[in-house]
């Protein structure tokens, strides 16, 4: 690991200033990805700006018809939250399936969404629930936020401050996990709202998280597991690696979608 300057600001304003002072500076949220890449010398930021001391970036609260989660809230806190469990139980379930206990107690929702790993769990929830990503500069809708593999609409130095999840009529998540990393080989989040159904898939797409319009249309007419059981997803554009072929992932999307609908009730 290369040498770097360490900063631990107490406010969002201080964090933004520290990041803006050097273009090679990086924000440190949970560190689940950044620290690993630094140890492997795949990343060598000049400065690390630790966001863990910023109280305004933490916490979970209900605001009207949405659950708002601060960017520095850990996966374990989301999983244990009564506010999340009461309003969006599928989101609480998802958080409890991330990694292991150590990862859940260190990793943060903001860090995960900012990194946009193609096998991460949260992107499926953000996209399926039609969440709004709030940053220190603006708000970004879920449909505009994810732009590609490890890519988002965030600009250089822009920080996620919170994510607002509209409360659905029902929602469920199911994933087929890598037994070692617990990353999603395929994960499907299904959300039923007054405007219809949204289905988002993580772990399978070569370009990251994506929606399945055919399933959304079918489920908007009949919200049952059998409705999606017969909908085939093309393997074109899906990941193929040592863990699963594109064809196998295509099959798993239908299976996980069926389970997610069942979990949503």
Would you write up a description of this structure?
The protein is α+β, with helices and mostly antiparallel strands and 265 residues long. It has helices at residues 12-20, 34-39, 75-80, 82-87, 89-96, 101-106, 109-115, 122-128, 142-145, 213-221, 225-229, 246-264, and strands at residues 5-7, 25-28, 47-50, 60-63, 66-70, 132-135, 139-141, 146-148, 151-152, 160-166, 170-177, 184-193, 196-202, 210-211. The chain is 35% helix and 25% strand. β13 and β14 (210-211) form a beta hairpin. The chain starts with a strand and ends with a helix.
What's the topology here?
Blueprint lengths: L4 E3 L4 H9 L4 E4 L5 H6 L7 E4 L9 E4 L2 E5 L4 H6 L1 H6 L1 H8 L4 H6 L2 H7 L6 H7 L3 E4 L3 E3 H4 E3 L2 E2 L7 E7 L3 E8 L6 E10 L2 E7 L7 E2 L1 H9 L3 H5 L16 H19 L1
Parallel strand pairs: 1-3, 2-3
Antiparallel strand pairs: 4-5, 5-10, 6-7, 6-10, 8-9, 11-12, 12-13, 13-14
Please give a quick description of this structure:
The chain has 265 residues and is α+β, with helices and mostly antiparallel strands. It has helices at 12-20, 34-39, 75-80, 82-87, 89-96, 101-106, 109-115, 122-128, 142-145, 213-221, 225-229, 246-264; strands at 5-7, 25-28, 47-50, 60-63, 66-70, 132-135, 139-141, 146-148, 151-152, 160-166, 170-177, 184-193, 196-202, 210-211.
